[in-house]
Amino acid sequence: MKQKRSNSTVTRKLPKPITSSELANWLDGKLFGECRLVTQLVPPTTPVEGGIAVAGTTKLLKTAQGSQFSVLVVSSDAEYRESQPIIKVEDTRVALALLSSRFNNRPEDNPGIHPTATIDSTAHVAEGVNVGPGTVIGPHVKIGVNTSIGPGCVIGHGTQLGDSCRLYAKVVLYDGVSIGNGVHLHSGTIIGADGFGYAVSPKGMLKIHHLAGVIIGNNVEVGANTTIDRGTLDPTRIGDRCKIDNHCFVSHNVQIGNDTVIAGKAGIGGSTKIGSRVLVGGGTTLADHISIGDDARISFCAAVTKNVPAGETFSGFPAMAHRKFTRRLYLLGRLEKMWQNVKSLSSD
Fold it and tell me: What was the pLDDT predicted at 11?
């Protein structure tokens, strides 16, 4: 550990004003209308002088047109009105992501180790790290440069954190967890707890000890109160750039590829394999020991009990190919009328 202890501080950065012409170039868009100064990103329903808003739908565009924004960001096929300066872009959602980064004014932690933090003498804390009050860092932990660890976190024996990570308040990392660079773990996240594994014996349930850890790739974000269990003999793995929402559960031995997105309250059973670029809807349940192919889509609240081929969309309970599911819904909606027709034929 190289840093001296000090009261860590927080700084709120103020985005610098920028012209709409400069923003158009930055967004790979095209400006129509006069160039104006932009000072903040605002909702399209809240006109503010100096504000830039993203009107990604026709409804939002109608609401925002004629208002006192400095400029609106719209899709490339949107109708242009000379009274309202606009920036046309190919993808308004991507533009919103870029603008939210450019105008981000949320507080940032300054480097420093709070006096109430407990750090084992064998732990290595690199330069530029922030460690908040009440945090406990165990033996042989390694923490990369410019990482920020919020108050009340616990980092277990031998865990490794990469560079430029951020742990919000009360994150718990058990022993043997490996976290890549640029990872954000939100409050209440628990990574590396034992999986739910037991053997039935004449003397009752025997615990199967989980001896492997969890490996999380680079630029992953995990939402608040999500849990990711450790592997039994091979580690649970989360690929690069995955995004996992709040209140999700990833069971032991799960393998997730790169760029997969999992929405809130999803539950993934043990030893399930999920490919890359998969979209998993909120409230979805994936059974254990199944495989979800690359680029698959799982609709919200689906219950998946079998393998999903690459590129397929599955919906329903139990989940099935989306077209088959919608066909069944259509037929179910006609059952009453069909039954009445059968009754009328019988009476004749």
Answer: 65
